[in-house]
Design goal:
alpha+beta, 6 strands
């Protein structure tokens, strides 16, 4: 009998750990909803992504799987990398370019002191854009530090 109870506990623990977690569509970001059905773009919505021990934010991740990278670059007003950045990309470095963007129009930059902004992280190497949906300056500061740390500690 103790063996059966032990096995039941282990199976329940595994089921909880491995069960896929999904967010209902109506709770996903508008950005996710805009791109989820676009062919050539993998859209993912991550709820409560851990940035550090105290900051958890929602993130929309858009990854271009083919020539759609140029579409994302146009949609989000992402410049072509300059020659210095291109050298890092060609060398296989995955530097993350981070910028503040307007919450209502992601192709527009936002003022650093604006409360109507979110953080966009761009990876030219993986052809991906991550939009960190923030609510205050503390979260934005933590995300900027997080992305800088990831870029410099590869």
């Amino acid at each position: 009998m103790p063996t059966i109870i032990f096995l039941a506990i282990v199976l329940v623990a595994l089921a909880v750990r491995l069960w896929p977690r999904t967010v209902p569509f109506d709770q996903c970001s508008d950005l996710y909803k805009q791109y989820v059905a676009v062919e050539g773009i993998n859209a993912t919505y991550i709820k409560d992504y851990k940035v550090n021990d105290t900051v958890f934010v929602d993130v929309t991740l858009l990854e271009a799987t083919d020539s759609m990278w140029h579409t994302l670059m146009t949609d989000f007003n992402i410049p072509t990398p300059d020659s210095d950045l291109q050298q890092f990309i060609d060398a296989g470095e995955n530097l993350v370019v981070t910028k503040l963007v307007d919450k209502t129009h992601y192709s527009r930059p936002a003022a650093p002191c604006s409360s109507n902004c979110e953080i966009m992280a761009i990876s030219y190497t993986t052809h991906s854009i991550s939009v960190f949906h923030t609510v205050d300056a503390g979260e934005r500061h933590a995300i900027l530090y997080f992305n800088l740390d990831k870029s410099t500690n590869q």
